[in-house]
Amino acid sequence: MSSAILRLTLLAVAAVGAVAQSQIPCVRSYTVQPGDTCDGISASEGVSTFQLAASNPGINNDCSNIFPSQVICLRRACLSCSTVHVVEPGDTCTSIASAAGISVPTLIASNPNLDSGCTNVYPGEVSLYHLVSAIC
Question: What are the beta bridge partners of residue 133?
C-alpha cells in the first residue's frame, strides 16, 4: 500500500515538474533537420545536451524521438550557459574544469546530468561550463 502511494506521489511530482517546465517560455528554438542527433544539435547550436533535454521534456533519453521539421526548444527563459564544451577522447571533469577556470564541483553543479564522481563523461557529449540561473 505505501509503495503504491509513493509511486503515485513520484508521478505527481514528475507531472508538476513537466507542467512547470513547459510554462517557462522558450527563448531560442531550432527546427530539426534530417540526420540530426541531440549531441549534434547541442554542438552546432552551443547548448549542453542536459540543457536541451531539460528544455524539451518530451524528448526521450536516447533522443530517438526527434524528427525532421520538429521545432524544439534550445533554451528556456532563466536558463543559459556561458560556455559549452564538446567532450573529446581523454577529457576528464578535472581537465574540462581546469580549462574553463572553474572547480570540478562547480562543473558538476552546472551539469546535473553528471554523476557525483564525474564518471559519466563521454566523447561527443556537450557539457556546459557554468550554468547561469535567474529567479523566475
Answer: 79
Tell me the pLDDT tens digit for each residue of 48-90: 777 888 889 899 878 899 999 999 998 776 555 556 777 888 8
What are the residue boundaries of the structural domains of the chain, listed by start? 24-133
Rounded CA gap, 43 and 21, in Å?
23
Counting DSSP H helices and E strands in the chain, the numbers are: 5, 6
Exposure string for 31-44, b = 16+ CB within 10 A, e = fewer: ebeeebebbebbbe
- Please give the C-alpha separations between residue 77 and each of 8, 57, 69, in angstroms, as whole numbers: 30, 15, 23
Half-sphere exposure of 122 (CA within 13 A, CB side): 5
CB 81 within 8 A of CB 51: yes
Residue type present at position 104: V
For 101-114, write each residue's pLDDT tens digit: 888 888 887 777 78
Q: 24-133 in CATH: which number? A: 3.10.350.10
